[in-house]
Amino acid sequence: MPYSSIGEAVGAAMQHKVRLAHSGQAPVDPPLQIRYIPPPSADPRSLPGMVARLEEDAHPHDVAAIIEETTSALIGPLTQLTELVAAAADWARARLDFTDPHANPAFVVWTQLATAHHMLGLANQDLDTALSGIAECPIEVTDARHHDKVQVLRTRELLHDVMGSGRTDPHEARHRAALATSPTTPGLGSAGQDTAAPPGKAPTPQPRRAR
Q1: How far apart are CA 112 and CA 71, in angstroms?
Q2: 3-class secondary structure, 85
Q3: Is 81 helix (H, G, I), strand (E, B) or coil?
Q4: I want to staple 40 with a disulfide (CB 3.0 to 4.6 A). Which of 7, 48, 150, 211 is the partner?
Q5: What are the strands, taking DSSP E only, across the chain?
């Protein structure tokens, strides 16, 4: 199964180890695969592309256009996510069983998904309301002393922010990683300090032979 990020692959690997530890059986899952994700610049209208376009110096009209694309009724990412959660809730609804009042896991799942669906609807409304205010925001970035009044919200970096935006030769990447972490890399110690051998002593002058 391909995974869209390293985090998903690591999480799947951890879940696999937990299942294996409890069952004691041989692994049955297919080997993990990392799917190549095109850089945000390859599709500016994709969700990663829109996030990449939301820089601090972006024009308010551009920001409003991005938010409007996010909540688009046809292809907006938030709209599609809301529909996906609704479909998952309907899936759980088809498995409801109230025969045992003390055991109905499908109802718990449906409740959680229905709550998430409602919150996504509220988020859509808030974004629609924010559209009118974005146009009134200053074009230029204000003084940084005002920014500390509220917290930064973006906490998850895009995969390409961390890994780079292009395909990398795996042999070259492994070579660079080995050089960067090897304690025996010439001129670099464990703390990144110069550990090159000190220069040797100057040779002792030999007495000149009489001619």
Answers
A1: 22
A2: helix
A3: helix
A4: 48
A5: 2-3, 33-34
Question: The tokens 């190549």 sit on which residue?
Answer: 36
Coil, helix or strand for 42? helix
Amino acid at 152: V
> Facing residues of 3 across strands?
34
* Contact yes or no for 114/90 (Cβ under 8 A): no
Q: Tell me the per-residue pLDDT of 66-124, one tens digit each, with 9 for 90 and over.
A: 899 888 887 888 999 999 999 999 999 999 999 998 899 999 999 999 999 999 999 99
- Which amino acid type is present at position 43? D
- For residue 149, give Cα distances in angstroms to 136, 198, 203: 20, 52, 66
Of the spans 93-102, 154-163, 187-196, which averages the highest pLDDT?
A: 93-102
- d(CA 56, CA 152) in angstroms, rounded, equals 12
